[in-house]
Amino acid sequence: IISAIQASLDLAKGHTPNLGEVVKSFDAKDSQNFSVVLNMAEITNDPKLDTMTIGLSVVNNEATGYKNYIGKASLNMYMPLASVFDMTLSSDNLVLKDIGKELDFSQLYDYINSYTYNEGAQWQASNGSWSLAGEISYKISFEENGGSECADIVSPAGVQISLPTYNENLVVNDVQNGIKYVYKFDGWYTTSTFDSDTKFTSNIMPRSNTILYAKWNLIETIETRYYTLNFNVNGGNETYNSISVAENSVVDLNGYVPTKNTYYVDKGYNWVGSHTGKWTYEVTRYTFAGWYTDISCTQKFNGTMPSGDLTLYAKWDATTTTEYYYNWERP
Hints:
This protein is 8% helix and 40% strand. The protein is mainly β.
């Protein structure tokens, strides 16, 4: 209601309808009867004339004490209708006022500006009476469409908010076809079809629960080459199948840790000395020391797949000791 009053006042500012064309004539027959001739074409052609109050002037004379007065009458128009409209003209309880008195809207404006309940305020009913409702919070949730997860925003309507964004591009690897797609973030939309008129750019919380959809634009397509990685365990116990790896990618070798059997050399039986009755063995044990790109194991693999097929060689660190065993302990 307050908004409508404000809008009506703002609309009337600076607008003067051509009353000379609206009111064609006015005739006061006596103190209780008068007639008004209106130009309906001028009324219907003025877009700002809807419900209108026309001031009826009474010429100063002896009957009025030689004072100028103005009367009130209400003219209500309901338009547009093709060539038919409703009109009500009333002059009940006609009140005479001094002509030329300046209208003062200051008190009305003061009332509007000091009104307790602002535009858009929400109300609630309790026991037959209305009161201002408590603050209601709404939620914005996000469909990231491949981007990192974004936390929901929960806030009352009208509060300033900050939408999440993505500074880094979205990279999608199609391993089967060897293609890498690179996307750039293009904002949030209220529709999953990203209609142009549904892009959400406001920094004010809306008065409704909202789902926003992330739009990504394809900016680059990169063809990825794959090469074969082979494994040579250099006498180890395991056998590893070759794998296909994308060039320049980091190779995960956590599952490729071979083992190698301990090597025993029988050096014979001890007849005398501190180990009399035991067999002497030269024992060599092996510890896996990593993967190398050459068979001599001088160039350690740096973990990145080159642009070409590659064979990795297992390197072994050997430790040899002399050990003694009784006959029933012999390996």
